[in-house]
Amino acid sequence: MDMVKQTGALQKQRRASFWQRVKRHRWFYIMLLPGMIYFFIYKYLPMWGILIAFQDYQPFKGFSGSQWVGFKHFETFFQDEMFWNLFRNTFVLAIYNIVFFFPMPIIIALMLNEVRKESFKRIIQTLIYVPHFVSWVVVVGISFLFFSTENGIVNQMLSSAGKEPVNFLLSAEWFRTMITSQVIWKETGWGTIIFLAALAGIDPQLYEAARMDGAGRWRQLWHITVPAIRSTIIILLILRIGTFLDTGFEQIFLMVNPLNRDVGEVFDTYVYSSGITQGKFSYSTAVGVFKSIIGLVLVMGANRLAKRFGEDGIY
Amino acid sequence: MNSNSNVSGKSAKFFKVICLACLTTSLLAACSSAKEDASASSAQPSSSSAASTASTKPLELNVMMIQQLAEPPKADSPFLKAIQAYTNTKLDISWIPGAGTAYDDKVSATIASGSLPDVILIRRTKESPNLNAQMSGVFWELTPYLKDYKNLSKMSEIAVQNASISGKLYGLPRERVLSRYGMIFRKDWLDNLGLQEPKTVDDLYKVAKAFTENDPDKDGKNNTFGIQEDATMELLKQLTVYNGGPNGWGLQDGKVVPDFVTTEFKSALDLYKKMVSEKIVSEDFPIAKKYDYFNQGKAGMYFSVIDDATTRHVDMMKADPKVQVDVAENFDGPTGQHVRATFGYDSLIAIPKSSVKDEAKLKEILTFLDKMGDDAMLTLINAGVEGVDYNVEDGKAKKIAGAKGSEDWQNFRWGSQFGGIQIEKTPLETKVETLFKGNFDLGVVDLSASLMSETNTQKGADLKKAITDAETKYVLGALDEKGWNDAVEKWRKGGGDKIIEEYTADYNKNSGK
Amino acid sequence: MVDRSLPSRIWDGIIIVLLLIIAAACILPFIYILAASVTDPAELIKKGFVLFPTKLSLIGYKYILSTHVITSSLGVSISITVIGTLANLFFTALMAYPLAQRELMGVSVIMRLVVFSMLFSGGMIPTYLVVKETGLLDSPASLIIPGLISAFNLIIMRNFFQQLPDGLEEAARIDGCSDVAILFRIVLPLSAPVLASLALFYAVGHWNQYFNAILYINNNAYWPIQVWLRQIVILSQGGIGDSSQFGQDFVPPPAETIKMAVIVLSTLPILIVYPFLQKHFAKGALLGSVKG
Known about the structure:
Chain A is mainly alpha-helical. In chain A, 73% of the residues lie in helices and 1% in strands.
């Protein structure tokens, strides 16, 4: 909003120079054109689809033929006795994700950055990047193999150590830990890539100079390495916050069962099962719109906060 | 360190060369096979038109069909040629993979875009949006036409009844075996223990307990259990039916009620709970994969469609020749024998009005579909191509080893899977078929299959989920008697009573007619 | 030059050990998949979990390579991935560069619109209709153009462009370079690390794509390999839920061995890409590219 005001003020001040400025930067605007056309056609044209949240949309009737129902789907959703339970489950999982998963790629990237032997670093990088390519169906399948109480390897080890078996998969208390650990296992290596790219941009002369000044490795890390990737971290954090309520449907859908549903059912899995019966498209769109609005508010807040701390933010 | 990095550099280069080589060969292969495809498909119309020049011009049809296997049928498949020649058609078939939700999503998107094929397979026909699409006249209503066709007029009555919406049929239901559910078990374990095939629910429990405690595999270790179950709790559904209760929904005291409010169900549930506590059913059943424990030789029986016995344990029997798998469907209960039945059909072959504008074209398509029910076509779909998939010996089709059969062309079959030429079968396959046919009248059909309830369409699935959760928790001991009763009460208050009311009203209306 | 003090060496040791443990944890399940993919189906079905198969079998790989779609769809996948990724990078860079200019009017508005498009989307059916209206249905272009620029990647790239030292561009401008020339001659060569990461993100996205292919394309000659491979994996997953109402008469599911072979085959080609891009992530890689 501030920016819009500013540009508005600028326009008034120097109306004459407006076209001059456009002309001077004409190549920039020409470069922007293909992208803007793309976003307009494939992202903004389909956005009428958001309006079907206020309809009883039926594919065969089309958008114009479907009945308008106002906020009916939103009311159904908010009045659903599951709503607050779903909200809590989604929210807690999202917090777990940001607190436990988000820092992992950064930490691993920094550790890799400390490794001096390039070949070792590359091998480790390649190995930790593998799990990203294992689909959720397989990750969950492997988790069942490892953690089941019947013949899971983990429980076999526990019992040979004389401990009681732990019901990792069929209990509410372990659900969030399992979900978050799976995410960490699968996505940490993949997540390091972007930070490694940022670290590759650091001028080695900076380290050289720091060493001359007698700075130890901790201080180099703290004063050169971390600042170099700070803006990347902040951008990624803002973007992650925007998709705060997206918990990843497939993984949770596969992991949830009657004994952990109280903590496991989230918006995405709920929409999948209820959406099908409740006029599918409109209802799931309504829940999606709700999630997006929350995301928008959070992104705006996070961006403003970032700017207050002197960062660039996203816009 | 230096030499080290040198080596890795060299091997990296070597790697690069190999990968490039792979890439180029695969790209080249792609080119050549694409060319073959093109020539094959261009050759094909000439052959089919050659076959039909004598008669009228072949009927051109766009078809959207589901693909169940890994790869779609080839464009020059002998099945396509045979079907086109026999029915005098030219088919342009889009095979869409059925795994996951992609097929249903594609159907929705295609319906939304308005450019539908001439013939389309729709699944989940009693769930919105497909239910709404049928009721709003997206597809032709076929009821008035069927009587004019030789085969279509003789379609399975139960399939037609269950696939209809308020007595109207909007597509051809693909007939499926009705009395399809039963028990699959290890005959060799039974023999090892000197036991008889169970005839009652009591026997069933005793055998399962013996499988758990008496070392049926004779390896001296206590490493087996009775019944493999998974999250669907098929055992519970079948026990209820054996007790004389409903399959899903049934009639009791003049009302259409769900199984879980009946006493037959409750005693089945309590038996199930007992079996879990005695480790006859393993405690991790909500996350178990349906066939795993049975295939691993840990469990002695499971409950499913009994044709699973002939397809799911091939590798297991190959690995251990001692393994004998057998099936059973008939259990004596207080009200005689009952078998849990399917809906008798699967999906509808529908004809959209937007692409098929007039009755004349509709009738042409129905003629085509009617011909697909002829013996010649059923033979083709059920047995394959003579000389390629089977040879005829003593009037029976004898499968040629390694032949692939009709594969996904089976999806075009709306008639009986036993139609056409008789196929020579293994003893187990013969037993399965005998049970299917012999137990037809014992089948207990879910009464709700042919009934409508607005409330059920709206939130039946949600309500049911809470009940399924409660069942699971109850048998695992995570929910007590009161908790279970509360769950049922909550179901009633949350809309269940209304569903009962609506189903009952619809039932009375239909039977009153 | 290099710090060889004792605490520093201990520090190195701890990091190396930790990284080894993490790498082992990451690779172990994949080794299980690899082992299972070459285990005799009968052994796998009996034991359920095999790390060291006693009886090897390549039946899974043989089966997959014997299907008639494998070669052509592999060709489609590779073409889509290569062409698509190049197009993605070109158009993302073209848009990100002007957006990285702080003094350009309208940047802030456009960035807001970009972020908005990340959070709100029209959904499957409206997008399908737009793809249809723009004439892309049944064309392989429908697998590339509707996802030409990812808002996420655009924001990342813009952020990297903003981090570049301003001096270089200024100098080039004074030398008479046009804005377009600066992007291609100076900015992009300096951005190898971020281009490499985004290339990876885009390439993996293309490689794993299956849903859009099924949705937008009827002619299965244009379907990428993931469509078939996913079908195999889900089919052999089988047994979850009740399939009896949905057909599958007398169609035995593919064996677990085949599923594992599929997973290996569908992962390996894209896994190989990474080592080639790695040199751009080396320390001081950026500086090297300036000098080179």
